[in-house]
């Protein structure tokens, strides 16, 4: 007799769990409260523009990405390595010369970081290339800023490049996040690319959902689970329209809902937020950054500006250019959209003093109060195991690994494996 399993939540973790469970012979039903799968990985269309919720990219070298996704089918559009460091009246390129030899001279000449820092970056790249991804989350921990000091990097390097660049990854410009996150992502950026699918980031959960359905899972969207009851011989799942007893449940919701459904106190519920604003510019007013993001070295608002349609031309119609800007911190979440757009216009005008940006037209503002769970040094030792949900309940979410696409998909695979082993 096949095991009956309900997966609660159709984000990346839930979709991966559903596929592996179905492939392993379980009778799987996935419930997703929203009308579409994806969780936080969603895409909207506005006036012909493709707008991902927040600034999200796919790191192609992530082990779970390599294992779970058909990258060729996603038709990826890749960013150029490195970034453009911008401040009033100044823009300079800093790139990995091994990843982008064409930018080697420009990177060598930039005064934003010292020559010693550039050499240490290459040494760090070499050091991490010798380490396995699984080992990086087990190493002794410290904050990113403390760890950079231990490596001998200058404060200039941390402030001008790492703070805004990793502010975009960890949503923490203070660099107080665990250095394990830095090592993992730095290695992934050295080993592969950062990219977006031509049809937007929502193409990723669509592909995972199709794979889960092909394996035999049933996916029901628009149906929320309102209650989960733990019994000795089964678990009871209550939805808006149904009530059923099953052999096992995989809770793959966001952290706060998972904590409510399971009473697992180890699930981290402190969130880090951001605001991403999307803009249209006339096609003639595009930015000369190539396929690199702009880092704000002079201020923190916005932290980054990204030429999305330069990277992925499909994101914008022929007569327009799509940019997005990310603002960090609680203040940004509460700031009026027009004020945020005014900050971006002012910042771009300072970076490009010979240009006007009156035509910068806001398309959408995404306010994301819980974009990641907070990841201070040492957090990973306190995260729950996939089996910590209860007698017949398992956890699948980045909060069992680390806050990332890698963490979400890896947790889904581990949760499915645990169910199949136990049941």
Outline of this structure?
The protein is an alpha/beta fold and 423 residues long.
What labels would you give this structure?
single chain; 423 residues; alpha/beta; 7-stranded mixed beta sheet; 5-stranded parallel beta sheet; 15 helices; 20 strands; 35% helix
> What integer value in Å does the Rg equal?
22 Å
**Straight-line N-to-C gap:** 11 Å
Sheet with the most strands? 7 strands, mixed
Q: Which descriptor suits the 3D outline? A: globular
- From the helix content, strand content and strand pairing, which structural class follows? alpha/beta
Query: What percent of residues are in strands?
Result: 15-25%
Tally of helical segments: 15
State the low-pLDDT regions, or none: none
**Mean pLDDT score, rounded?**
93
Q: How are the strands of the biggest sheet laid out side by side?
A: 8-7-16-17-18-15-19
What's the quaternary structure here?
single chain
Total strands: 20
Description:
The protein is an alpha/beta fold. 35% of the residues lie in helices and 25% in strands. It has 15 helices and 20 strands. It has helices at 12-23, 63-68, 71-74, 104-109, 115-129, 133-136, 144-151, 155-170, 179-191, 203-215, 255-262, 308-311, 330-333, 337-351, 405-422, and strands at 4-8, 27-32, 43-46, 49-52, 58-59, 76-78, 83-87, 90-94, 194-197, 218-221, 225-230, 235-239, 243-246, 248-251, 271-282, 294-296, 304-306, 320-328, 361-373, 393-395. Strands 8-7-16-17-18-15-19 form a 7-stranded mixed sheet, sandwiched between helices. Strands 10-2-1-14-20 form a 5-stranded parallel sheet, sandwiched between helices. Helix 7 (144-151) packs across helix 9. The protein starts with a strand and ends with a helix.
């Amino acid at each position: 007799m096949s095991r009956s399993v309900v997966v609660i939540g159709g984000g990346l973790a839930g979709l991966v769990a559903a596929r592996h469970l179905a492939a392993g012979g379980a009778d799987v039903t996935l419930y997703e409260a929203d009308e579409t799968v994806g969780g936080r990985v969603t895409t909207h269309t506005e006036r012909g523009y493709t707008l991902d919720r927040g600034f999200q990219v796919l790191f192609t070298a992530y082990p779970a990405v390599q294992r779970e996704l058909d990258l060729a089918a996603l038709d990826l559009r890749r960013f150029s390595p490195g970034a453009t460091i911008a401040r009033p009246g100044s823009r300079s390129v800093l790139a990995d010369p091994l990843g982008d030899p064409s930018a080697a001279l420009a990177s060598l000449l930039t005064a934003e970081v010292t020559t010693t820092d550039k050499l240490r970056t290459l040494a760090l790249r070499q050091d991490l290339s010798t380490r396995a991804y699984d080992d990086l989350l087990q190493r002794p921990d410290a904050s990113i800023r403390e760890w950079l000091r231990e490596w001998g990097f200058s404060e200039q390097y941390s402030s001008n490049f790492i703070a805004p660049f990793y502010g975009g990854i960890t949503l923490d410009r203070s660099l107080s996040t665990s250095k394990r996150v830095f090592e993992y992502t730095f290695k992934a950026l050295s080993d592969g690319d950062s990219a977006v699918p031509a049809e937007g980031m929502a193409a990723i959960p669509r592909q995972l959902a199709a794979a889960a359905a092909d394996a035999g899972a049933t996916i029901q969207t628009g149906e929320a689970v309102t209650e989960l009851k733990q019994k000795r011989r089964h678990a009871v799942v209550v939805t808006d329209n149904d009530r059923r007893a099953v052999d096992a449940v995989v809770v793959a919701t966001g952290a706060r809902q998972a904590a409510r459904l399971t009473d697992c106190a180890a699930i981290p519920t402190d969130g880090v937020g951001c605001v991403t604003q999307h803009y249209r510019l006339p096609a003639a007013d595009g930015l000369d950054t190539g396929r690199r993001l702009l880092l704000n070295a002079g201020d923190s608002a916005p932290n980054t500006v990204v030429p999305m349609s330069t990277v992925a031309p499909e994101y914008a119609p022929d007569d327009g250019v799509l940019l997005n800007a990310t603002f960090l911190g609680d203040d940004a979440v509460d700031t009026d959209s027009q004020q945020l757009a005014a900050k971006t216009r002012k910042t771009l005008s300072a970076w490009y003093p010979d240009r006007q940006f009156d035509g910068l037209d806001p398309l959408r503002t995404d306010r994301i109060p819980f974009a990641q769970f907070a990841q201070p040094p040492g957090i990973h030792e306190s995260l729950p195991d996939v089996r910590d949900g209860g007698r017949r309940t398992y956890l699948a979410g980045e909060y069992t690994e680390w806050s990332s696409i890698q963490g979400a998909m890896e947790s889904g695979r581990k949760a499915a494996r645990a169910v199949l082993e136990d049941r």
